Structures are given as C-alpha cells and as structure tokens.
Amino acid sequence: MFRQIQVHEEDQQFQGIVWRDDSSKPIQSYRLSIVTYGLITSPYHALRVLKQLALDEQDNYPIGSKILLNDFYVDEVMTGGDNLSEVLHKIQELIA
Predict the structure, then answer these.
(1) With contact defined as beta carbons under 8 Å apart, do 34 and 5 qualify?
(2) C-alpha pair distances (Å), 29 with each of 2, 6, 91
(3) When comparing pLDDT for 81 and 47, which is higher?
(4) How far, in Å, CA of 38 to CA of 66, rounded?
C-alpha cells in the first residue's frame, strides 16, 4: 500500500537515501517519490491518504467512502454484507 502513494514533489526533498556500493565510490543521493515503508510515520501517511480520498469522493462513492472511513485497519478492509450482490457492489465502489 505504501508504494502506491505518491509524495508531493515539493515534499520529496524531505525523504531521501544516500548510497554507495563501496567506500571508493562517491556517495549518491536519491529522493523518494513514494511513501516509504518502515518509517515511523508511514502508516499515518498511508491512512491519512485513504481518509482524504474517502472525504473527497464521498459524493461519488458513498458506500466505498464509508468503508474507507469506518471499516479499514492499517491495510485491511474488514467489512461485509448480507448477500453476494451487496458485497460485490461494495468491492466495485472501493476499486473505483
């Protein structure tokens, strides 16, 4: 999930990696353009993006928005329905 969230270009300067293969080579620096897995703040960023997406799209996808706001834990959807057609409709809204 983390690698699917693009970091705004202006903010990419705040997360980077310095790297070199061996000590005889110069250090190279890289900017990360996606939310990085393993940082303390990564789960917050991922969940905050989902929350904002749900708020932005609640008029277009009311069921999917409600699921994102209430039935999501870390990277798992925990929801259900009374019948197969209801569940399939929920899946379609979440994907859309």
Answers:
(1) yes
(2) 21, 19, 40
(3) 81
(4) 28
